[in-house]
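User: Second chain of the day. Same drill as before.
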Amino acid sequence: MTLKHELFSVSACLLLIVLYYLYLWRRTLRTPDSSAHSFNAKIRDRWVDMILADKNNALLAIQTLRNSVMAANFMASTAILLIIGTLSSSEKISHWLLQSGLQTLIPAYSIELSTLKLSLLILDFFIAFYCYSMAIRFFNHVGYMIGLADSELTPQTSLYLNKAGLYYTLGTRSFFFSLPIILWLFGPCFLILGTLLLILGLALLDHVSS
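Assistant: Same format as last time:
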């Protein structure tokens, strides 16, 4: 295989992902209730309305937001550990891929190509860390806004909570996208296979069963 195969596989995978999200966007416009993202946003809006409508729900709000912050904090810590682990073992992984006896499965060209793939993997984990950190930030803001129990802040509270949910989703998606990148280390064919598996999994997650 040549560098041309690598470029073709990357272009094909990017095109597949773009086409999937265009399809998801159009389906959401036609039938918003079929999208998990729209459904979750609606649920968060209703949750804010319920919490602010009754002061007795304050404890429920604290527990829910605490659990959300803890989950986002755990995932952010996991992303950092993955970044550190990839950085510390990147040179060993590159040499193993280049010197391994599995040359039929691992089309290696140079140490630079393997390093590029690992760098993209690290970037993916960094994006996950950033998104989870932003989710924690917005969850904390929602906590203060809920504490005021001011019905006039309901739209802003819902907006912040949905932003937190969006960042959490983006962080999780970043972890999902690491699968094709990891498989790409073993060759462009594995990159395409990983992307197809990713799209199949996203299609199942993004659809709300009626």
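The chain is about 85% helix and 0% strand.

User: Great, on to the next one.
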